Amino acid sequence: MRYTLLTFFLILGCGLFAQTIPGRVINRNTKEPLAYAEIQTDNGAQILTNIDGSFELRLENEVDSIKVSYVGFKTLNIQVSKDTRYLQVGMTPVYEQLETVLISDGRDPAVVLIEKAIKNREQNDPEKVLNGFKYRSYSKFIIDNEFGNIEMTADSTSASIQTIINEGRAYLSEKVSEHYYTKRKGRKEQVLGLQTAGFKEPVYNVLAMQLHPLSLYKRNYKLYKTEYAGPLANNALKNYEYKILDTTATERPAFMVYFKPKRERVVAGLEGILYLDTTSLAIQKAKAQLLGAIKLEVDHNYEYYPDKGLWFPSQQTTKIRPGSGGKEIAVFGGTIKVGAVQQKKGVLNTIFGTEEISRNLYLNSVTQIYDTDLDYKGEIENPGAEIDVDENVTTKDSEFWESNRKIDYSQRDEATKRKVDSLILAGDVERKIQIKKAMASGSYPIKFWDVDLSKVFKFNNYEGIRLGFGGRTNDRLSDNFNLNGYSTYGFKDEVLKYGIGTQIYLNKKNGTNLNFTFSRDIKETASFHYLKGQNTFSILEPRFVNINFFYNYKKYATSLEHRITPKLDTELQLAREEIWQTKEYSFLNAGTEYEDYDLASLTLSFLWRPFSRFLNTPESNILLEKNFPQFTGQIEQSFSTLGGDFNFTRIGLKAEHEINRLDRSRTEFILEGNIGIGDLPLTHAFHANPNNPTREGVLRRFSVAGRNSFETMFFNEFFSERQASLHIRHQLRPFLISDSFQPELVFISRYAIGDFDNQSKHQNISFNTLNHGYSEAGLELNKIFAGFGLGTAYRYGAYHLAGFKDNFAFKFTLQLQL
Fold it and tell me: N or C, which terminus of the chain has less Cβ within 10 Å?
């Protein structure tokens, strides 16, 4: 009886719903697809073809008449019946211009129109015109099955049909936000409500997906971590071709302008259509698409505000479907594979099931803007974080959601929520996300303990193989503190190193932590480590392998970390160190020769990232997007009192900047300065990050290149009490040889200058200074195979060596990320 009832409802559904007919519009002569051809039906409905000429036509009657038109082609009138299974329309070109846009000087009318639209951009962009504005948005984010999208009628009660509907959808999230903008403070999003089906705790990664960029007026159009050339940017005519298709017959008519990338292999671009107001040339509506590894569709809708003479965004829809393969879309720590090539399993495979099902997934996200205030004059609280999350964001009641849902929330959505709840619980997906996040920071969680992967294995010339174990407790043990420690053993020096400590979370939201640590280990002589701004975990530390000049230390330290703003992070540390040498070195100070000595120091360190984007949650501050420049600084004062032997000051300041271009070329700058004042032993002087082993023969010095090290400078060759260095890397756009082979050519230039006041204080060691300025130039060809590449560098200038080969360094390069 159940199957009979199911069959009855399915047959009934086929009769009740309108027939959808797929089709394609092409050039009859060349067989090429016609993008954004206009199709009109008897009932006044209008659709546009996709960039591949495809369309889906809904017929309400047994037979309908449609009109197909396209600029430069003869308009066709066609009768279509419900018996039609597929409709291919071939259009015949007629070479004539649109009378409404004829330009007297004979220039391409589309080019003239876009030039005017670019000039008018300042008076049409809300961020340029308005001093401030505010609005609310409701977003619904869905991951669905392409072929499981069965619509449910209001009176459907069949349990069998409900089961089919449940199987069709895989993920659902809702968000309500308040958005603010002022010219002085910029943008701010306050998240008021967030529901992520299946997760007890909020999945904050979803908030950073950037599936709804507000403006098409910007230079770059950023959509989910990929930047595309803006269709109305200053250089738009260099990146796009334009064609005027028609004008709309609306209260405020608009030019329909088709745009298509000019340099697809150089600059990422979208293909689409702009509806430009015939009076102001502002965007009324826009549609953009991308076909290839993925099928991407984005629709922008704007609402007109007569009192402001301004079009303001009202709705945006983004849909991403499987393409021909190769590209992934990451969602809250996992990946959705939209394409069959190079299939990789991610966290969401547990939700989505088999690879065959995953290929049919599509991602759909809709944002509706409402309660718009274009005269906002208020202040923006906590402007350092671009997205701020309310503390009770996940506890909103049904009344809140019902009043703020501006997009239909169907019975199928509710069924999806229940289904995903059970799937995520059964698949322990939250645990898998926890593992992926921990791995990204260099650790692996095992129950209550996060194993520090950097402590497991290392190698250097002094210790040989260094094996160990370390890590820290996680929130499974306590939400208020962690215990941390490590132990490692060097098989060459046969010494056990270890450390232990605790971190007490005083205030998670602003990163206020109290730390207590003790460690017994070795450290590279003349190294300078910033407490803040350390690089993220890397699989390989190239320089560490060849270091052979270390000193031993025991260190007792306590520190206080505090995030003053999301963009400014600080740490203040009080420490006492006992130091002894691994080589014959002594420091002559005030008539006394020191091989072993004690230091008492106070250190203040900061990391300032003024242009990066942050998400501020009740528990933490999350970096959404790392933008440049950024600055790291540190001042350390060592006292001859409090049990210390020397009185000195060390200061370091580093500025980093990156210029990333749409053609995927990149230029990086690192400028760093260090200064030491007072009784400075060599252990606490400075080196310039040398990375050239001291061996005879250029091939015997073959090693792995670092990111900001001097590849031709020998270890222990130069030391400074004051120094400055500049690293410049310019990477050309990748050579697009194939989808899997895209090597990158990099030009490198490095400079360093330094000085040392009294070298004679440092006994049993000889070294040079950098007072004449050190220069090297390099070349790298990266990503030749599996992240590996080759590089070379040449030493020139004041410290050029007599032997020609001695000035060269040849290197492996390795660019892998965990």
Answer: N
